[in-house]
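Quick board copy: two proteins, each given as sequence then tokens.
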Amino acid sequence: TLDAGAEDAEVKARERGEGLRRGRILRLTEEALEQGGVLTQERRDTA
């Protein structure tokens, strides 16, 4: 779940954008693992 609605709004108000970002990453990671998924990180080179 990318957007958890009211829960995300509370985190953003309390912990700002960084806390919201951290929480979303944790939530997405947990959901992927529960579904047997594997997460990867795409590398984008900038020139």
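And the next:
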Amino acid sequence: MTSDIPFPTDVPNCQEALKEERKQTSCAVGLSVEELPIISRVSSFQKLQRVLAWCLRFISNAKLTSTERKFGALRTKELENGLVCCIKQVQVTNFASELKCLQSGKRLPANSRILNLYPFIDND
């Protein structure tokens, strides 16, 4: 059985053929943190605080009878509750693993960004 295809006689030097080739590649990684849609829709922090306070009042009023509901301008305590709501949401969004450690009584990882702030869980 002979073949009509000739066997190559000039084999190149393996070292030259397999010369190391390096390519430089770049990779960009983005961390997506899901936040409340309302945060990106409001133009200022004070406005965000007030919007959240109004939402909390609405929720509170929905649970009350018509004679117990609050009307009129927001009270200082309601604005404070709006601020606390905003802060808690941002903390839950950005520090979920740290919150989980603190709630379970474990120590924060050594590479935690907030370790040197001595975080704790308060009663609110």
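Board note added afterward: The helical segments are 14-17, 37-41, 45-62, 76-94, 96-103.
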